What we know:
Layout: E1 3-14, E2 17-28, E3 32-36, H1 43-50, E4 58-63, E5 66-67, E6 76-79, H2 91-101, H3 106-116, H4 135-147, E7 153-157, H5 165-180, E8 184-189, H6 192-198, E9 201-206, E10 209-214, H7 216-222, H8 239-250
Helix pairs in contact: 2-3, 2-4
Amino acid sequence: MASAISISGVTKRFGKYTAVDRLDLEIPVGLTFGLLGPNGAGKTTTIRMTMNITKADEGTIRVLGEPLADEMQERIGYLPEERGLYRKMTVIDQLLFFAAIKSVEKKTALARLEKWIDVMDLRPWLGKKTEELSKGMQQKVQFLGTIIHDPEVLILDEPFSGLDPINVVLVKDFLADFKKQGKTIVFSTHVMEQAEKLCDRIALIYRGRKLLDGTVKEIKHAYRDRVPLPPPVEPEPELEKIFIKAVEESGLAAPTTEELR
């Protein structure tokens, strides 16, 4: 299967601190891939290198079979961890601005938005300035800006942060629809339950190192006899406990379960 993203031997240092350490990842086209780990694990740095925002010190990254280059940006939808909207701009102008910088004609952008704004409950807010919206509503605007150019690959850094349960479901439904179209979705999260429900494959990262990589089923099967199961015995161990076990076996200090929630 062809790779949407290929990361080979990538290392990134900030001074004496190694944020990403010899990372290898192959993310196949058309899958939903979860990049998991606690805060500070190296997830955002990995994403920023994939987006060519931060340069790797070592190793190579290819997206859709091509080396990193600015022209690749129009094939990727990127939702950064640090959300960014122009507070004095109206919602509709903000969305059309996102479309323009991705070379989407206004007519095409409006046609796409017409399909989405009611689902996202944004129609009453189109003429409002973004500063008047709640954090969750602003995040929905940013999400639509991420997909307005119909990208082949979606890269989302903590996409559910700040969303209430109803809007989490809305975004999940959008992602499911994108996957049906054959698009590749990569998202980072420290919430194991989200990844378990949404992802075809996951990678667990801790202190910049990849500890586990595979399908949820493969990983749970591999750790079935290595993670204690409390009574009543569950058929498979929880991902949080698997992650802690993997860190223990790596010789690094184990995070608490609370760090992974």
